[in-house]
Design a protein that fits this description.
There is one protein chain. With 632 residues, the chain is an alpha/beta fold. 34% of the residues lie in helices and 21% in strands. It has 18 helices and 24 strands. Strand 9 and strand 10 (200-204) form a beta hairpin. Helix 4 packs across helix 5 (150-158), helix 9 runs antiparallel to helix 16 (500-514) and helix 15 (475-486) crosses helix 18 (596-615). The chain binds 5-amino-5-deoxy-1-O-phosphono-D-mannitol (M6R). 5-amino-5-deoxy-1-O-phosphono-D-mannitol (M6R) binds at residues 314-317, 361-363, 366, 369, 413-415, 508, 512, 628-629.
């Protein structure tokens, strides 16, 4: 979604602002802009609908340059994608960029219009620009007296805002910064971090945008407002008190966000899965026993108390949760429910305080998941766990327990390596809950060979990166199928048991990047309605692992064949399938027991990727979508 970059330094900052925006492109956006204070201290602005490259062209044309500035990529919420709605928004010599949504903007806008402020956009953000200006002016409903400087004016303005925001503001001839120009930042609900550099100070909504200048970062807390000059950072917390926040050194490497030899980030991320899984499972080392401490210091005590599990997440992360539900109920014998976060947060549910609430999120920023966590806590849930790929994210900071997947930065909008590493984390959680519930024998055999179920599952987990590597070798076969899907309008995906959520994930991947309408069904549901859709034009993708439901699944496949449907079957070895009329078959290298979903989903990721390639869509930045959904 929207992205912010800001800088105040000794050197010309336009190249940094533009390269920061390029780094944030993956988040999804429809327009971009920047505002700088030029050599004379005057505010200059350039904006463009479309790509950052178009903004770069305008910046070059206009010769925009300066040592302090703010920049933004916008993903439309209020008002269509258009240059007039692109940030920064200005009000008499000050400029604002904003991520988030101001919920009371309509009411504020009316009041500001009554004070004579003229609006030129449809955005909620422009309200903030005029509000800061009104605080600087004083003598109105927002401020009795004029604010002393821009820092004070922003503090005054945010006190009137309802909703979520990350803000960066600059103003020409800022009185409080007469020696040095300054950049004012504020955060509530939307992420914002500061960069501590050699040549100056920086701000961004995503750490990756700062890596070209510094690894030393300060993560702002909700309610913080800050003043950045070239020499110093001054922070005031939500209670109006001066506060010092820890400077942390980011472990992100700049290479991790480079495309390298790959054609797309999604392709890179699919092929990074063996490494991502290996990194995520690294903390197991060679240990024959799982330690609850990998989920946090209090995990052992909490796992021993819980009598049920509630999983909250959105999109792909929710499908990881749905897969885990099968594992948790089967191995740990604990009731487990999975709820879409955007529904749960508004539903009147009945809280069970002994339930473990698990929130799953790649980004840790998803507004609905964060709000669902807040809702759960407000309902009295204290046993909370985050499974997340971003250690510094809001979600991770708000739960009692946490497990950080080590997938590395995921840039492609379509989630891939985040999903498989979430599955690995959830399997570890399952084993620990099973242990705590007395369901995994800890007894070693008398001959000294440890063949306990725990040991066997750990061995399978450790082998997972190798198994995924072998699966990736199927790419040419999967690519060959893609041609046949590319001109279809619809597809059905079938799975059973813990492969049903994998069928759902397969359809989400296909929809997101190839724009083909796809629906997933538990195969047994076919004859309860969707069979009516099946004809020779309907490709039916079947996930056919060699498990106890295989014979049932074969019967469901017969139902499709009998209606002329085209089957595309991903089967494990030795399943007794034959390629033939109406049956296309790809054999996976091995059946992988309870962890089989991790392998089958990789095959579906590759299928979606290659179909999108044939269709020529924008794989990494599909239309209308954003990487992190930080607004409701
Ligand atoms: O960052 P999160 O895991 O919380 O994101 C949740 C969904 O927005 C995300 O999984 C989305 O569905 C992806 N685009 C799927 O590929």
């Amino acid at each position: 979604m929207c992205g912010i970059v800001g800088a105040v330094g000794a050197t010309e900052c336009t190249p940094f602002l533009l390269s920061g925006l390029r780094t944030l492109e993956y988040r999804g956006y429809d327009s971009a802009g920047l505002a700088l204070l030029d050599a004379s201290g005057a505010l200059v602005r350039a904006r463009a609908k479309g790509r950052v490259s178009e903004l770069e062209r305008r910046v070059a044309e206009q010769g925009v340059a300066g040592r302090v500035g703010i920049a933004h990529t916008r993903w439309a919420t209020h008002g269509v994608p258009a240059e007039r709605n692109a940030h920064p928004h200005v009000s008499r010599g000050l400029a604002v960029v904003h991520n988030g949504i101001i919920e009371n903007y309509a009411e504020l806008k009316q009041q500001l219009q009554a004070l004579g402020y003229a609006f030129t956009s449809d955005t909620d953000t422009e309200t903030i620009a005029h509000l800061v200006q009104a605080c600087l002016a004083g003598g109105n409903a927002f401020a009795d007296a004029p604010a002393a400087d821009l820092f004070a004016a922003v503090r005054c303005a945010v006190a009137h805002l309802e909703g979520a925001y990350a803000l960066a503001v600059v103003r020409e001839e800022e009185p409080g910064c007469s020696e040095e120009p300054c950049l004012i930042v504020a955060r509530e609900g939307s992420p914002l971090m500061l960069g501590v550099g050699e040549q100056g100070h920086y701000a961004a909504s995503d750490a990756s945008a700062l890596l070209s200048v510094t690894r030393r970062m300060i993560y702002l807390e909700n309610g913080d407002v800050g003043r950045l000059t070239r020499e110093a950072i001054e922070l005031i917390d939500g209670q109006g008190q001066p506060v010092a926040r820890e400077v942390v050194t980011s472990s992100l490497s700049a290479d991790a966000v480079e495309l390298g030899d790959y054609r797309h980030y999604m392709q890179k991320e699919i092929f990074e899965q063996p490494q991502a899984l290996g990194n995520t499972l690294e903390m197991l080392g060679g240990a024959g026993r799982l330690q609850p401490g990998i989920f946090g210091a209090d995990a052992e005590a909490i796992f021993a108390e819980v009598d049920a599990v509630l999983i909250l997440a959105c999109g792909t992360s929710s499908y990881a949760g749905m897969t885990a539900r099968y594992w948790i109920e089967q191995l740990a014998n604990l009731p487990c429910s999975v709820e879409i976060a955007s529904e749960y947060r508004y539903r009147h549910s009945v809280a069970n305080p002994r339930q473990l609430v698990v929130v799953i999120s790649q980004s840790g920023e998803t507004a609905d998941t964060l709000a669902a966590l807040h809702h759960a806590k407000a309902m009295g849930h204290t046993r909370t766990l985050a499974i997340c790929n971003v250690p510094e994210s809001a979600i991770v900071r708000e739960t009692a327990l946490r497990f950080i997947t080590r997938a590395g930065p995921e840039i492609g909008v379509a989630s891939t390596k985040a999903f498989t590493t979430q599955l690995a984390a959830l399997f570890l959680l399952t084993l620990l809950l099973a242990k705590a519930n007395g369901r995994l024998s800890n007894e070693s055999a008398n001959d000294g060979v440890d063949d306990s179920p725990e040991q066997a599952f750990l061995t399978e987990l450790r082998h997972l990166p190798v198994a995924v590597e072998k699966l990736l070798a199927l790419e040419p076969e999967i690519e060959a199928w893609a041609q046949r899907f590319a001109h279809k309008q619809h597809a059905l995906f079938l799975g059973r048991g813990h492969h049903y959520p994998i069928a759902l994930e397969g359809t989400l991947k296909l929809k997101e990047i190839s724009y083909i309408h796809a629906e997933a069904y538990p195969a047994g549901e076919l004859k309860h309605g969707p069979l009516a859709l099946v004809d020779a034009e309907m490709p039916v993708v079947v996930i056919a692992p060699n498990d106890e439901l295989l014979e049932k699944l074969k019967a469901n496949m017969q139902e499709v064949s009998a209606r002329g449907g085209q089957l595309y079957v991903f089967a494990d070895g030795c399943c007794g399938f034959e390629q033939g009329e109406g049956v296309n078959l790809i054999r996976l290298p091995e059946h992988y027991g309870l962890l089989s979903p991790v392998l089958h989903v990789v095959a579906l990721q590759l299928l979606a990727y290659h179909v999108a390639l044939v269709k020529g869509t924008d794989v990494d930045k599909p239309r209308n979508l954003a990487k992190s959904v930080t607004v409701e």
